[in-house]
Each structure stands twice: as structure tokens, then as C-alpha cells.
Write a sequence for this structure.
């Protein structure tokens, strides 16, 4: 069904290519464990080769966008949405990337909330922006969506998402503070049965109240569903074409994270950029999780005792891809450098990814045994090369150690 739908969409693209914005990419998809590579094609290595049509139609306040990954063995819709924009708000319906957090989503290891690693859930979102004399800008969004069914989720769980950001401008500086709150809730889950989905349940999720007497015991004491989010801090200095940005995304799973008991956990970033160069340094630490005994610790990021598939859609982590629900205590050192020349750009990346024991499902009354805590270390050095001529881009990205490579050819119509 997906493959047939993608074929129809591709034909529509071809018909309208001269009238609207249409891009076509051809890329190889190696079977690789290198996250920085397989994120580029959503892990769809079964095909060895993908056709990726991307189409955008914009008229007045309306925008339609679609991007598909089409292969011989497997095809998927990555994005498919319709949006309507007013003076201060945008209403979006479909499958889209919720790009709201402080990192540079094109080059970062990935936001703790939503990265480009996964296919996008189906949802409806309203985002608004208000300014006060151009010195203070408030941005907010609110959405409702669904995750996919699988062997654990017998009926689709819902997702609730909201955020509020403030941006304060002083001369050449920008100060940002935001809070993002997400919840997985409802649906029908193996071993737990029907977890609801009524309007009353939705209201409990929105305001963070416990569930009713029909919900599992933990859901009657804590807030309904698997709630999590980030505090997002950023400072940006801009002078002419030079830019320096520092940011920190502090992750929370429950009250202990809200009270910063897991103080050192989160994503830290420093970015230098100008017209022809980008240098990005990131450090990710999720080891603490408020300690190795509950309460208050054993937070188990991206994982939940009920929603054990975690913050995942279609088998892909929605948040930072270096945190997996079953391998969620990690330390990551991430370095990215890009230099642009006239028609050529060179990318260099170094990634050191350490994995430690996860706390998932452990005894709440006894300290977690941290002996032999370290599990695995992955190191990768990647080189990328991109050249452009007329309406065509050619790119190759290679991991030096494994020699796995992704080659892409992008054609712009």
C-alpha cells in the first residue's frame, strides 16, 4: 500500500515539477551500524538504493509538502503535511518535523526531543509567535498525535506535545529559554490492556494530573502517561556574518528531573559559524538519571514501564539517536566541522559514543549495582564531500573505520 501511494505521489510530482518546487534525490543505503550514516536514510538499508522525491507547493497562506523514500523492497512516507499560516500562528496537519529546540538540526547529533533520525508521527499542531517591540519574542506550540501499532502497542498510543519559548534580544545577542513537555498516553498495551483515550484522559494529560481508578496503579499516583521533556537554554552572539551559539538541553522524566536532581544530564553545545564555515562541538551525558536508587532516581530516559517501546516511531528513535530506550545511559562527544568553498564543501566528524548499563525495570528499593557499568564504546571518524554544478548536487559521506559510504545525487527542478 505504501509503495503504491508513493508511486502515485511521484507521478504527481512529475506532472507539477515545472510549476512547483520539486527535488529528486538518488542515494545508496549501506547496511551499517554507524548512526551518523543510517540517520540520513532512516535505516532503510534493505533496498541498497533509494529514490527520494521531495515536493513543495505554496500558495498564499497554504503550504503542502511531501517527501518519500522509495525502494524496491521497502518504501516509506517521511513527511506529508498541509499547513495554513496567519499573522501570528501556523496550523499543521500530517507527518512533519517539529523543529523547535535550540540545536542546529542540520548538523547536531540530535535534539533530546525530536531529531531527523525518525519517520514522523501523524499529528495536528498549532504554533504561535508574539513579539513585544521586537525585543522579546514568545513562541509556543501545542499538538496531538499518534504512535504506530506494533506487537506491544495493540492500539495506537497517543502523543501530547507542547512548548513555550521566550527569546530576548539585546544589541547583537539573543537569550533563549524554553520548556518542552511531551506525553505518551492511552492506547492498548500488551499486559496492561486498554489505557483509555477519552477527552477526560486527554485533559489529565494536558495539565499533568493522575489518571482515574481504571488506570494502572502508577498512573493513579503519578501524572497520566509517560511524561518527559526538557528545559532548553541558549545564548547566541551575532556580529555581521559571524555567529557564536551556546546551548543546553536539560532532560527530565519526572519531578526529580524538574528539580534538577539529574543536574549534569543533558545535551551541551557550542557552535561557531560564518558564511563559509561551521564548527560544532557537543557533549551528551545521560548517566546520572537522578541516581541509582528510586526514589528519586532510575529515571530510564526514553523508556517507560508501560510504554516499553519508548520514544520511538516505526522502530526509529524520535529524539537523539545516540540514546536508545534499552541503552539510555550514554556519554557522547561529538565534533563536526564544515568548510565551504566556491562549489565544494568538506565535512569532518568525530564521534565517541560510550554506553553504560540501563536502569530499565530495576528494583525501586535497592541501589542499582553499578559494578561493570561500562558496556561498550563506539568511535567513528567521517569524511564528507559535496560539490554542486547547475541544478545538481553530488555528495559522498564515508566512515573511515568501516569504510561504509553513502552516495547521493540531488537534482533540483
Amino acid at each position: 500500500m505504501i509503495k503504491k501511494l508513493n508511486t502515485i505521489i511521484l507521478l504527481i510530482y512529475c506532472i507539477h515539477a515545472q510549476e512547483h518546487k520539486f527535488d529528486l534525490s538518488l542515494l545508496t543505503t549501506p547496511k551499517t551500524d554507524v548512526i551518523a550514516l543510517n540517520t540520513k536514510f532512516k535505516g532503510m538499508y534493505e533496498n541498497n538504493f533509494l529514490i527520494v522525491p521531495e515536493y513543495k507547493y505554496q500558495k498564499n497562506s497554504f503550504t503542502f509538502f511531501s517527501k518519500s523514500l522509495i525502494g524496491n523492497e521497502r518504501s516509506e512516507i517521511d513527511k506529508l503535511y498541509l499547513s495554513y499560516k496567519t499573522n501570528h500562528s501556523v496550523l499543521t496537519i500530517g507527518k512533519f518535523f517539529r523543529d523547535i529546540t535550540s540545536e542546529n538540526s542540520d548538523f547536531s547529533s540530535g535534539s533530546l526531543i525530536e531529531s531527523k533520525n525518525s519517520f514522523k508521527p501523524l499529528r495536528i499542531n498549532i504554533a504561535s509567535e508574539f513579539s513585544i517591540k521586537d525585543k522579546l519574542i514568545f513562541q509556543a506550540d501545542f499538538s496531538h498525535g499518534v504512535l504506530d501499532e506494533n506487537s506491544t502497542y495493540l492500539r495506537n498510543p497517543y502523543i501530547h506535545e507542547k512548548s513555550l519559548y521566550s527569546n530576548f534580544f539585546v544589541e547583537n545577542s539573543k537569550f533563549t529559554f524554553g520548556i518542552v513537555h511531551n506525553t505518551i498516553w492511552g492506547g492498548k498495551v500488551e499486559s496492561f490492556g486498554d489505557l483509555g483515550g477519552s477527552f477526560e484522559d486527554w485533559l489529565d494529560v494536558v495539565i499533568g494530573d493522575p489518571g482515574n481508578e481504571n488506570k494502572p496503579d502508577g498512573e493513579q499516583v503519578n501524572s497520566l502517561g509517560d511524561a518527559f521533556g526538557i528545559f532548553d537554554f541558549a545564548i547566541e552572539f551575532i556580529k555581521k556574518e559571524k555567529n557564536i551559539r551556546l546551548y543546553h538541553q536539560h532532560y527530565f522524566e519526572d519531578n526529580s528531573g524538574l528539580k534538577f536532581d539529574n543536574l549534569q544530564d543533558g545535551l551541551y553545545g557550542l557552535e561557531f559559524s560564518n558564511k563559509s564555515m561551521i564548527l560544532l562541538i557537543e557533549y551528551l551525558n545521560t548517566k546520572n538519571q537522578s541516581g541509582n536508587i528510586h526514589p528519586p532516581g532510575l529515571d530510564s530516559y526514553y523508556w517507560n514501564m508501560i510504554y516499553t517501546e519508548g520514544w520511538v516511531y516505526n522502530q526509529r528513535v524520535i529524539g537523539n539517536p545516540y540514546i536508545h530506550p534499552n541503552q539510555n545511559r550514554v556519554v557522547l562527544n561529538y565534533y563536526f566541522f564544515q568548510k565551504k568553498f566556491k562549489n565544494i564543501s568538506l565535512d569532518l566528524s568525530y564521534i565517541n559514543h560510550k554506553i553504560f548499563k540501563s536502569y530499565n525495570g530495576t528494583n525501586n528499593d535497592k541501589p542499582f549495582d553499578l559494578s561493570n557499568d561500562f558496556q561498550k564504546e563506539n568511535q567513528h571518524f567521517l569524511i564528507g564531500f559535496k560539490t554542486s554544478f547547475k541544478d545538481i548536487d553530488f555528495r559522498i559521506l564515508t566512515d573511515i573505520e568501516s569504510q561504509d559510504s553513502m552516495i547521493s545525487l540531488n537534482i533540483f527542478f
